[in-house]
Design goal:
By secondary structure, this protein is α+β, with helices and mostly antiparallel strands. The protein has helices at 2-31, 39-62, 66-87, 99-110, 112-135, 151-230, 235-262, 274-288, 312-328, 361-366, 383-393, and strands at residues 267-268, 270-273, 295-298, 307-310, 334-342, 348-354, 375-376, 379-380, 397-403, 407-414, 424-425. The strands form 4 sheets. The chain has a 5-stranded mixed sheet. Strands 1-11 form a two-stranded antiparallel ribbon. The chain has a two-stranded antiparallel ribbon with strand order 2-4. The two termini are 45 Å apart.
């Protein structure tokens, strides 16, 4: 679809350029007392260009072989430009600058390689034309056009033209690459902005949720516990009440996770040793029964001494959500690999990989987005959105990428930590 749009613009710009040349020729014919080129043949060349453009439009609406269409258009453009240069007197004229438009079109519509090939073909056509006219193989079109030029002047002009063609190809390719990178960065910034908006939406929703549910839920849980202590209940009734209290605590925990997305309260910072936090998290998961004998935990985290200046509760949340989600995504069991690395710049890399579901590209992108995130096999949650919020607080980055051996790998990169004199700060 993009190339089809580019073809249309290529045809339109060609018509604009040719029309501008035609208007210039008419003005020269009306107001100039001398003729710098044969205008009659010049008009014929312009008419041929219009006819070819009409044919290009028919091919455009046909909609097939788009790459071939572009190559065909550029080929005939170069031939017509060579005709313009010949009519205007070769080196004596000034139309060989039109070759530049063919090079630009090849770069933007086709590829960088096509731009260099077009520059080379332009140089060959121009060189053959100029040498042929200089050596007498091609007669000058007008009787007043021949001008005595030394071989050195001819070679020098050809060399300058060739150099100009390839320099233009290089500069256009460079500019195209810069524009492409800028467009990608803008798209990424737009995506980040959308995520921030969703985080704000999650915050508003969590505030209403906390107000409407948490207080009544606490009252229900407290009432059940009081009744359990005052009434003589059978074992089955006690189990039902225990279940009410347990489920109430579970819902309250979910609400707290929502609040953690948008409640940047003051947190105490200190040196956090990742290995200790991970081992504590694994022990909690083992006690809860979620991390059982069906899972194997590997990685270099036990031998790692890497620490980070931050809030230990936040990192507990990170590892709890990531490891727990990894386990939930592989209910039949598997391997969870946890590695902690540090690059020469001091950036800390936290890597958690699991042999579970192989997510598609779009699913990986949505995995760390709020509301629509955490689409593991067990259902939808907000754990990954909580992780994303914490990582953003530390100006870090989080990536979800495929691993052919391990399944899916989540990589968190944290910038070099700097201890602060103030042990308490607001994130």
């Amino acid at each position: 679809m993009k190339k089809r749009k580019d073809i249309f613009w290529l045809i339109l710009l060609r018509l604009i350029i040719v029309t501008a040349l035609a208007v210039s020729a008419v003005i020269i014919n009306q107001f100039s007392t001398s003729t710098f080129l044969p205008l009659t043949l010049f008009y014929y060349v312009i008419i041929v260009t219009y006819v070819l453009s009409f044919g290009y439009l028919l091919l455009y609406y046909w909609g097939r072989y788009q790459t071939f269409q572009v190559c065909l258009q550029i080929f005939f453009d170069l031939l017509l430009i060579t005709a313009f240069v010949y009519v205007s007197g070769g080196l004596r004229g000034s139309f060989y600058f039109l070759y530049i438009f063919g090079i630009i079109a090849a770069s933007f519509v086709l590829s960088k390689r096509a731009a260099y090939l077009t520059a080379a073909f332009s140089g060959v056509l121009f060189g053959v034309l100029v040498n042929g006219m200089h050596l007498g193989f091609l007669p000058y079109f007008g009787v007043d056009q021949p001008t005595e030029l030394s071989p050195g002047t001819v070679i020098n002009n050809i060399f300058i033209s060739w150099s100009m063609f390839f320099i233009v190809a290089f500069l256009v390719n460079y500019m195209k690459e810069r524009l492409r990178n800028t467009a990608e960065k803008l798209c990424l910034a737009e995506r980040e902005l959308e995520i921030k908006k969703r985080l704000a939406l999650a915050g508003e929703f969590s505030a209403h949720l906390a107000h409407e549910i948490r207080n009544p839920l606490a009252a229900i849980s407290g009432s059940v516990q009081v009744l359990k202590g005052e009434l003589e209940l059978e074992n089955e009734q006690k189990e039902l009440m225990d279940n009410i209290v347990e489920q109430s605590g579970r819902i309250s925990h979910s609400i707290e996770q929502f609040l953690s997305l948008v409640s940047p309260d003051k947190k105490t910072f200190s040196d956090v040793r990742f290995a200790s936090v991970i081992e504590e998290t694994l022990l909690l998961l083992e006690d809860s029964g979620e991390l059982n004998g069906n899972f194997q935990v590997e990685g270099n985290f036990k031998a790692s001494n890497i620490s980070y200046f931050g809030n230990i509760n936040q990192f507990k949340q990170i590892f709890w959500n990531l490891i727990r989600n990894s386990i939930r995504s592989t209910p039949e069991g598997g391997t969870v690999t946890i590695d902690i690395d540090q690059d020469p710049r001091g950036e800390v890399l936290l890597k958690i990989a699991y042999t579970g579901d192989h997510l598609k590209d779009e699913e990986r992108k949505k995995l760390i987005e709020p509301i629509l995130s955490s689409e593991f096999q067990s259902g939808k949650g907000i754990g990954m959105a909580v992780v994303r919020r914490i990582v953003d607080d530390y100006n870090g980055k989080i990536q979800v990428r495929p691993d052919h051996e391990k399944g899916t790998e989540i990589v968190i990169s944290l910038p070099r930590s700097q201890k602060r004199s103030d042990s308490r700060m607001r994130l």
